[in-house]
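[DERIVE STRUCTURE TOKENS]
===
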Amino acid sequence: MKRKKKNNIGTLFTVPMIVSVAVIVIIIIASILAPIIGRYDPDALNLGQALLGSSGEHLFGTDQVGRDIFTRLMFGSRTTLLSALLVVLISIVIGIPLGVICGYYGGKLDNIIMRIEDVILAFPALLLAFLLVASFGKGIANAIIALGIVYVPMLSRLTRSLTMVEKNKTYVEAARSIGFSDVRIIFRHILPNCIPTLIAQLTLDIGYAILDLAAMSFLGLGVQPPTSDWGAMLEEGRQYIQTNPALVLAPGLAIIITVVAFNVLSDNIQMYLDPTQRKLPPFKKLKKMAGGLVEE
């Protein structure tokens, strides 16, 4: 029996979960401490140091204009992560309220909004973002807004489907019979029960946003030189891949590792928060079990 308790607690901290969280934390810390850890100015040109290989002074070498790749990689993580978070934030602010309203009330408003979203979803997401940026103009701000708009229908439809399931449950009928207002039912009862699935989806969306933003910067529609960004670093270094492979490998691996870490984290969050998939006890039982182990 004691062994079973230990195993249940141990399953909360699976190896993939620990590794993914550790990777994300390291990247966040590196982005915050970039001015302290980085020994060089990420934008300062030094043509005399161009295309140097890996050394003690330059961990990943230098790029075609003598900038330290490792320093730019850390400063680029700031731009990449912050931009991805802003994309997801835009989709949250617009998508979740739309989804909840459409799912709860239905009717003509639901039909109109869903048809508009059908039109948006008819286009490939990245292609539509390209068209929007081409209309608004190049730049990271316009790229964030464009991708945020593109992500709205996906999150809105997910929220709508979750709301439609929840509104037909007994607790909602009980709340109505007591006389609770629709606003209270939606935001105090229905929406909290949708949050577990939404958290998992939003974590996954951060990874997708990092990929999409990198693609836009690679094509010259996102971050503009000389600002450090992983996608822009890929574009700048592709011509010199044979001279110094780190110009492409460093930002490319950074994108891959970060996106995989967010995907793994999303899967583990979904498995833990979803009662139909969870093999773990709830938090209260975990606390009691941990207390019992301490006493033993």
Notes: Residues 1-11 have pLDDT under 50 and may be disordered. DSSP finds twelve helices and no strands in the chain. The first helix runs from residue 2 to 10.
